[in-house]
């Protein structure tokens, strides 16, 4: 088996070690003897997303999100929408997550039209939502507890066309009000969780890998990995957050 991963905008959407998610995805495949290729697709690149199995988009500041708008609307937005509709697995973090929605409106009222692949929108707020946080994934997304770090001014509101990735148990999540965190639509996993997300949350990482592999090969069972260090880091954050 093999998996092709595309890392979109690594040159501008690369906050808080988000590229560590690519390393984690790669290692957890290689440790199981599954071949993996990673294509980095910065501004100006023309990756063929339809030929990818998993697309990763990291987070970025308001400025970076505006920098890539021209490139996004030069046709990459339509390609992302088509790939999502076709079931390609996506993992999108914070700014990358917001970008999949209808629009992002900055705190001072500048509205950036985004991809419109997911039924959601984001409005910047004066109060930034910052800190270590924790949420529980829905059963459809594996039901695992996730620990992470969030830093965003955007408050994201989900429309009826998407489900949350999970429910916040400590911290802000999508908007600090409705206890939702992230979004799920088809094979898209979107979250505010920086950190990077995946190394301290091996169960979620494997769920995402399984989703991508099963779209390509049908039913797949992933060989368990030891995960002592990963689970020790996970447990330490749970203790810090809820004692
Ligand atoms: N600029 C966006 C916000 O502040 C996303 C931030 C991020 O990716 N950490 O909400």
Describe this structure in words.
The chain has one domain (2-242): Rossmann fold (3-Layer(aba) Sandwich). α1 (20-30) links the parallel β1 and β2 (35-41). It has helices at 20-30, 62-67, 69-85, 95-99, 202-217, 228-242, and strands spanning 2-8, 35-41, 54-57, 89-93, 103-105, 111-113, 120-137, 145-158, 166-170, 180-181, 183-185, 188-191. It is globular. The model has no long low-confidence stretch (mean pLDDT 96). The chain contains six helices and twelve strands. Glutamine binds at residues 15, 59-62, 65, 94-95, 98, 151-154.
Tell me which ligands are bound: glutamine
Structural domain count: 1
Beta-strand percent range: 25-35%
Unreliable residue stretches:
none
So, the CATH homologous superfamily? Class I glutamine amidotransferase (GATase) domain
* Helix vs. strand class: alpha/beta
Task: Note the total helix count.
Answer: 6
Q: Please estimate the helix content.
A: 25-40%
Radius of gyration from the CA trace? 17 Å
- Spatial shape: globular
Mean pLDDT score, rounded?
96
Which fold name fills CATH's third level, the topology?
Rossmann fold
Count of β-strands: 12
For the biggest sheet, the summary is: 6 strands, mixed
- List the strand order in the largest sheet: 2-1-3-4-12-11
Short description:
The protein is of the alpha/beta class and about 240 residues long.
SSE topology:
Elements lengths: L1 E7 L11 H11 L4 E7 L12 E4 L4 H6 L1 H17 L3 E5 L1 H5 L3 E3 L5 E3 L6 E18 L7 E14 L7 E5 L9 E2 L1 E3 L2 E4 L10 H16 L10 H15 L1
Parallel strand pairs: 1-2, 1-3, 3-4, 4-12, 5-7
Antiparallel strand pairs: 5-6, 7-8, 7-9, 9-10, 11-12
Bound molecules: glutamine.
